[in-house]
Amino acid sequence: MKKNKFNLSGSVDLIFALCAAVAVIAIDSLLCAYTSVHPIFTGVLSAIILFAAVVAFAVIRRNTAITKRRAPSHDTASVLAYAVVDLPEPCFVLRGSDPDAIIWSNKRALELFGKSSRRLSEIFTPVSEDGEEERVAAGERRYAPVSYQTLGDNGREYCICIMQDVTEEDAEIERLCQKESAVAYVTVDNLDELLNYEQEDYRSASGQAERILRQWATDAGGVLKEYQQDKYILICERSNIAKFANEGFDILDKIREIRVGANSIPVTISMGICSFDGTPGEREKAAQSALETALQRGGDQVVVKTENSTDIFGGKTKLPQKRTKVKARVIANELVSHISSSSNVIIMGHRFADFDAFGAMVGLARLCMFCGVDVNIVTDLEDSNLDRCREWLLGEKDYGNVFIDSDSAMDLISSDTLLIIADVNNMMQFESRALSEHCQRIAIIDHHRKTAEFEKKPLITYIEPAASAASELVAEMLEQVLPQNQLLSVEAELLMAGILLDTNQFKKNTGTRTFSAALYLRGRGADVGKVQELFKTELYEFQRELKFHSNVEIYRDITAIAIPEGECTVKDKVPAAKAADKLLTVEGVMASFAVVPIGNEVHISARSTGTINVQLLLEKLNGGGHFDSAGTRIENVDVKAALEMLKGAIDSYLNENPQ
Questions:
Q1: What percent of the chain has pLDDT over 90?
Q2: pLDDT band at 649 (very low <50, low <70, confident <90, very high)
Q3: Closest to 478 (Cα-Cα) out of 345, 350, 354, 332
Q4: Cα–Cα distance for residue pair 493/522, rounded to 1 Å
Q5: Long-range contacts of range 549-555, CB-CB < 8 Å, 24 or more positions apart?
Q6: Is the pTM of this model over 0.70?
Q7: Mean pLDDT rounded to a whole number for the chain
Q8: CB neighbours (10 Å) of residue 22?
Q9: Which of 115, 431, 497, 541 is the most exposed place for a label (fewest CB within 10 A)?
């Protein structure tokens, strides 16, 4: 049963009414008893008094209620005072028109910062960090400002700013981020090469490598698990990655001390590491991608992917050629599938294409013709260095309208166009960067070490730094999928010219796969004697080469730098490369560099005897290539500035890798 609550306000009103009635009756009785006033008059007078009393009482009750509503209770006032004056966080009242001007500070702000500062910027300095909320610092403390606008009684705007101390919070977040796990994939690079020796030697070397890796992981507090023979996954705290980087990932050197066979071949590993925020799946994929990059660059190195960059360590040894052609067969079949599903194919190489790029493009064009798809090769039609190559194909009806320039190629692009890029993977060196940006379907066939991530993921990425030439890779693919009588003898000769160029007539960077590709081309009608005609030097080229021999500087005792006398043109690039090759015959020279100024650019060709990795050296100048053959192009500099940059790169490399 519901109980009625006692209404104090109603009781007061009832008591007042009773008292008023009694007072009126008493007044009326007195007037009648002691005066001669008529009773009716006394009744009216009493009624007036009663009405006046009621009105007065109502007014008093109304004003009292309003006052109670307006005036805060003792508890409310205390809360407001605590929230502003006694707030444990620094609080400031700022001028709305000038939110840096301090009008008033609470007790905590005065205790921490005193009364001397009248502007907020005199106390706090901004802390700028990517991906973080706004922070300001005062001394060693960090604060997160919380502010809001308000309107004063005078109609002016004010800003109330409360500083929340987040020093400990930020420190804890940073500590937790450092403790977040990093994922790494590790693999033994030259497993196939080691298997060529006695099985016992292989097992011993594999066991030593595993013991070193496990000890390294244990010292870092990480977990190393073998998921496949000689392939591992490592999980450790992210803070260890910076430590490993500062040590130059010396684990590479420790593994390299393991030697196998009579030739004392060093065991090498490659590692891909992801060291940024993300889901476990995202980090695992990034680590896999980093490992692929390390292998595409030739192995014996570590690639670390962070939020803002890709860092590379190692790469001190040459990757031996592998005997298996399984990958060539897989890539060839995959490429044929993509070609067959395309409306047309465009093939291009690098700027100032050489015999290797040209031969590879011709071989890929034959593959497209075999698939029955329209194909065009993009070259610089004004480049005289390739005139003889194009002349060799003039008699072949299949090549009547194949060669076009980059502008004409842009008109041929459709959604189903396939762009095949040969003998280059650095977009800065593409024959036409615009083509790569507009084509959605791309395949890359190259033998140079990968230098950077691609802006868009290619359908096929076949990068084999162990191969001697791009023409070698293309010849292997043609051998796997092309019928015996489909490759023309002139096409085989151009492919052979590419291999001969990049191996310096089979004198360097050759292996069983190189000779196997040459044997295949020889069987398809390549005449080596005829191919040598392409390598004959005309008199003007011979004279141009002499410009580089007459001005040579020996730098750091083991490098030679050739600087030409007089002006240079594009035609000097080939003589410069030949001059760099010949400088290696000078006693004591381990690496040579030929500097070619062309307009506002400076081109540098580098060669090595195999003791200095010129590819790593020229990467410091945004170049690339191979362990013993590389190049770069520096824009908007003169010869003097380029020479200083080159010497700086040589100093940096030799300091990191003393000979």
A1: 33
A2: very high
A3: 332
A4: 8
A5: 549/579, 549/582, 552/583, 554/588, 554/589, 555/647, 555/650
A6: no
A7: 82
A8: 10
A9: 115
